[in-house]
Amino acid sequence: MYYYQTKEYLISGTNYKEIKKKVDTIFKKIVGKTKHQPYVRSTYFLKQKVFFNIFWVHLFDKQYSFRAERLKYFNASVELIKCSRNYPTTIENPNKNSELLHRFYGTTKEKRKFIVQIKEVKRTGKLYLVSVFPE
To answer: Is 105 helix (H, G, I), strand (E, B) or coil?
Structure first.
């Protein structure tokens, strides 16, 4: 397994509100580039779009402390999706056979390891960011 070294630091903040405010400014730049669903183009998937719809739904199912911890890695995860050419570990979704789960591994500038999970729908080929979490 190969780790992609990002140039981004962890998003600083002591509580969920502070971190969410900083993430919103980063996400607003991504949203401003499109008129429809926000996305980032992935180098590994040959410039295919990776959408954020599932990420926000999945994130808001968690408690505040988990949300804050995961959102700290948001900036680094966006860079990893955009720039990483490293092979992910890919498994078939145990809950749905029609989906693949790709796990990319990365490190922040402070050498903190994290994982980005992307879901691929086999039938359509669409990619969705599912989760970001520390290793």
So the answer is: strand
Q: Which residue has the tokens 């992609």?
A: 4
Identify the burial level of 97 via C-beta atoms within 10 angstroms of its C-beta, where 0-12 means exposed, 13-18 middle and 19 or more buried.
Answer: exposed
Domain boundaries of the chain, sorted by first residue: 3-27+38-134
Q: CB 14: neighbour CB atoms within 10 A? A: 8
Instruction: Identify the H or E element spanning 18.
Output: helix 16-31
Q: What span, in angstroms and rounded, lies between the C-alpha atoms of 53 and 56?
A: 6
The encoded tokens of residue 20 equal: 């969410």
The residue ranges of DSSP E strands in the chain, in sequence order, are: 3-5, 39-42, 48-51, 89-92, 99-107, 113-121, 127-134
Structure tokens at 16: 């969920």
Tens of pLDDT, residue by residue over 16-33, are: 999 999 999 999 999 998
Intra-chain end-to-end CA distance of the chain, in Å: 13
pTM: 0.90
Cα angle 81, 85, 89; round to 5? 80
Q: Enter the tokens of residue 111.
A: 């050498």
Compute the distance between CA of residue 75 and CA of residue 79 in angstroms, rounded to an integer. Answer: 7
